[in-house]
Amino acid sequence: MRPVTEIPIDPSRAVVHEQGWQSWSPSTSYPVGTPPHRPASDNRRIGAWRAESLPAPSVYRGEGLIAVDPGDGPIHVIASADPLGSVPAIDVSIVESRAVVTASEPVVVYSFAGSIQEALARWADSVVSSLGLVAPRPAPTIWCSWYQYFTKVTEANVVTNLALMDSLPIDVVQVDDGYQAEIGDWLIPSPDFSDVPGLFTRIRDTGRRAGIWTAPFLVGSQSQVAAAHPDWLVRNYDDSPVSAGHNWNQDLYALDSTHPGAAEYLTEVYSTFRSWGIDFHKIDFIYAGALYGKRYSDVSPIEAYRSALRLIREAIGPDAYLLGCGAPQLPSIGLVDAMRVSPDIAPTYMPRDEDISMPGQWGAVLNGVSRAFQHGRFWVNDPDCIVARPGIEQREEWAEHVSRYGGLRGSSDGLDQLDEWGLETTRRLLSEPVPRYFIP
Ligand code: 9PG
């Protein structure tokens, strides 16, 4: 870490704002003295923070971006000098009445009047204009299978819902995790789906668009792709596969998208989906494409990530809508239409083990508010789906949050589970106009 600057602060009023690495990384503002959220295990660090980022416990860390409100003057924003190509760890230590800033790679220090969100919005404006980014396309409305059926979804569940959505303004029916045999085996159906391409045809026959979930850079240790192509995995220097975390009761590895065989496989998967008429893609766990390790080509993890996203974009076609999830935030600028900015919503407010990066309304709201400045600038913010059925804890508060901070609007209830309030609220949230910016 190299010294960057020292900012005089009023310790009784100063606030530090951390930007987390990926969609699910806790991102929020802390009054100085408040300890930041940190991973409870290596697995959580890999899966929801940043694998190689190990800040000292008493230090605030932003990944590529941090803001300091000194309490008695303008907001200081410290950001990567090259937000698309390098995401330095930026640390703030509070030493008496100074915020001492250090960083692992070159950064630029800005100062802006207004609130932290307004300052972050001004910084984002400067990124947009220096890169010449065009305004994001408006998002379609979606229905997503995940938050009702999870991995147990069946073809019949999707068909049942298709028959119930006539009165709702839903553009895209997005089949989430569960249609595939294994993580990585995207073209092999799960036993609960007898005809995956046929299902997408049925969706399109109702006049709606077809959407699908994949985790393109994950390879499950139980998958056929892992068994057949061990040479497609990102490796440690001792040649063991790099861990991309643990989920679905198995170890997860990272696909080396720079390997010509793996790149060809990705192209095959997404071209096949395109030939099935799918034109909405939720690409998930994509932090796995930017893990450190040995690759076929000698490129930085972020370069590998960005070229893999370009490859996917090429294969899905220019008109397809691309939603990133579990995604490194700054390295995705200019490559996705919409971005999940938060951990998952869940039926319970409090996540398992009170881990704020795990599914629950607590973490979902925290990040959705903190990343409001990104919406309309880098992409459309996805705060996660509307869930409005009885049994969702604090469903009124969640609906309020989606109404205020929802760029992409999606419903994820079994539609036969909705009561009158749930159906009315879903209809309202899907119909509301979405503002260009949440932070002007
Ligand atoms: C499908 C789901 C849904 C959901 C995504 C993502 O940290 N974790 O272990 C973790 C697991 C799952 C997860 C997020 C984090 O959910 O956000 O919308 O698509 O995958 O498996």
TrEMBL record:
Q: Is Hydrolase included in the keywords of this UniProt record?
A: yes
Taxonomically, the superkingdom here is Bacteria
The question of whether Hydrolase is a record keyword is answered with yes
Could you tell me the keywords of this UniProt record? Glycosidase, Hydrolase
Region named Disordered: 18-43
- State the signal peptide span: none
Q: Where is the composition biased (Polar residues)?
A: 20-31
Q: What is its EC number?
A: 3.2.1.22
Q: Which Pfam families match?
A: Melibiase
Q: Name one GO molecular function term.
A: alpha-galactosidase activity
Q: Which InterPro entries match?
A: Aldolase_TIM (IPR013785), Alpha-glycosidase_related (IPR050985), GH (IPR017853), Glyco_hydro_36 (IPR002252)
Protein name (Swiss-Prot/TrEMBL): Alpha-galactosidase
State the organism named in the record: Kibdelosporangium banguiense
Q: What is the lineage of its organism?
A: Bacteria, Bacillati, Actinomycetota, Actinomycetes, Pseudonocardiales
